[in-house]
Amino acid sequence: MEYFKIMQETNNRNVLRPVFPTISQIWGEEKPLLVHGKVEKPEKEICFLPFYQANILSGAFLIAKKMGEIWKTYQQGGRYRPCVLGHVETRKLEPYYFMYPRLLNVLHKDTVYLKDGEIEQICLCKDLIKVHKVFGVKGKYRTDMIVSGDVLEQMLQRGIVGFQMVSVSVKEGTPWQKNM
Predict the structure, then answer these.
(1) Are residues 134 and 143 in contact, defined by beta-carbon separation less than 8 angstroms?
(2) Cβ–Cβ under 8 Å, residues 134 and 71
(3) What beta strand segments (E) does the chain contain?
């Protein structure tokens, strides 16, 4: 099975940029949260992305409701909190979820790292992935979001675009292990 790393789109200039709350504000309550967004040029039509990467330390993601519904179907574990992303000046609101993925230790020994210890190229160990189709892989400083090919296909069939994806390699054999 193929797997892909999902990332925030960076090419669109008139994208609504969320102002992310603190970790305690995100996960401290259960009721829906209003997240304010900013735009470089608000006089033009603004674009809501389906996938936003929150700040590096939180490990959380902000995902469109349509994307969240698909991921919940395929994901075992993880955490979701409903929220609304809005732009005050244009009075536009869209339903979203804050999402913290189930983190899996599924890296293969062929994963490539940068000098600072962060992951440069992900290589997954097929034997450890098993039935997981939506999950996070924790690097030294950030969490990468991984989805299987069939999840990606569902997203595209439902018209969810506006994110970047990179194929990650999957190999059988030895998982990555820390040197003790």
Answers:
(1) no
(2) yes
(3) 3-8, 17-18, 33-38, 51-53, 61-64, 79-87, 92-100, 112-113, 119-121, 123-125, 134-138, 143-148, 163-171
Q: Is 23 helix (H, G, I), strand (E, B) or coil?
A: helix
Q: Is 0.85 surpassed by the pTM of this model?
A: yes
Residue among 96, 77, 79 at smallest CA distance from 87: 96
Tens digit of each residue's pLDDT, the chain (180 residues):
899 999 998 876 788 899 988 888 888 887 889 999 998 776 668 889 999 987 655 678 999 999 999 999 998 788 999 999 999 888 899 999 999 999 999 999 999 999 988 899 999 999 999 899 999 999 888 899 999 999 999 999 999 999 999 999 999 876 665 443
What does the buried/exposed string (b/e) look like for 53-90 if buried means 16 or more CB atoms within 10 Å of the residue's CB? bbeeebbbbbbbebbbebbeebbeeeebbebebbbeee
Q: Are strands 79-87 and 33-38 parallel, antiparallel or unpaired?
A: parallel
